Amino acid sequence: MELYQCLLLTCIFILFIRESLQGQHERQLLKALFEEGNYSKLERPVDNDTDPIDVKFGIILQQIIDVSERSESLTTSLWLRLLWKASNLKWNKEDYGNVSSIRVPKHMVWVPDILLYNSASDDFDNTYPTNVVINSEGECLWVPPGMFKSTCAIDITWFPFDDQRCELKFGSWTHEGRLLNLKQDNDTGGDISNFIRNGEWMLIGVPVKRNVLAYECCPEFYIDLTFTIHIRRRTLYYGFNIIIPCVLISSLTLLLFILPPDAGEKISLGVTILLSLMVFLLLVAETMPPTSDAVPLIGIYFACIMVMCSLSIVFTVIVLNFHYRSPETHTMPKWVKYSVCGWLAWLLRMKRPGGSTTIRSLSQRAQVKDIKLEEKSRSLMANVLDMEDDPRMVNGNTAGFLLKMEEGMGMASSSLRHDITSILRELKKITSKYRKCEEEEDVRNDWKFAAMVMDRLCFIVCIVFTVGSTLAILISAPNLLT
Fold first, then answer.
1. Fewer CB within 10 Å, N side or C side of the chain?
2. Quick check: pTM over 0.85?
3. In 3-state terms, what secondary structure has residue 90?
């Protein structure tokens, strides 16, 4: 029975009570402010039309979405914070049930036309139309979130160890400084307490500067607040994916001077290394803006390594040219013999097995070579060479010498004399040919030794250049480990 009575009372309440008593004070307040008070959102909310309205402005940086070096733009997620005092939106909260604040849509009240001056987006106003919070003293607080894409002059001088300073310039588009006094909400700059960490960039700070400028288009002065987002690139990604592979590839260039010339792969190895460096250089160039204002630090490093690799190929061609020279095509100049095989080899602490490389030793080695050739020719036939050393043989008096041989032997015949003469001629030919072959072999060995000395010199030069350029680039980097 009690259940039926409760249902009956509920139905009577629904039928006869058409409006709720809840929120009636706020409703009355909204009606009094916007309907009965003749409020107009087109007028500035000031007591005197000649007085400027003070607007405090600040940003809350949530996240750095993207930094595009190619298009030189910065995309960020921001909350704007605007605070001003409207003289025509005040009320006594005791008259309206102690209602101290209300929330109204943006299109119902006057809001300052603050825009991002250096916007790179198609739509200048990318904020979400949130409500405006108004308290009984007339203070209006508006915090619209939005995604902002702004222009940013990218300085690629120290890439990938660079810092970037991207400016966000906010100001009124139509209200001059005498009508709207824009002030900074926080002296320290933007609020970064809720910043979400970025994997590529490290946030250093967001300082702010208030500017009062007069533009050529307009006689009035305008006030803007410029927030500078100072970020620093994290180099771990570029170190593992670009710098370390480049250093390793450039180190392979040293193998050109360790590989023997007879292997036949020195030139192909050098060209392969050069092409690999070109691929890495193209990867870096794709991310950089096409500007001629500066050359990135890593681009300078790639250029140095490529020059070194190109010079190593040139040095390799010179070494191979020296290695395969022969007496039939080239005669070793004295400056090569004494400067390369002599002084340079001594400076590089190189010497042939069983000998030294000083100038004096080279002369002594030439004399010893002649003595050895003479001894070898004598060992072929001692008797014949004894006859060759005889002055009578030298003067061509062979017949007289043979007659004396006849007298010594007791008897000789014309056929024996003819046979001995033929043998002597053949032995002279063999001896001269053997001596010529050994001389040619010595000349080839001299060229090969000169090639070894040049190879060692180029090896040392490339080591010094590679290590020096790498250390110079790393030391000159302003932010190496971030």
1. N
2. no
3. coil
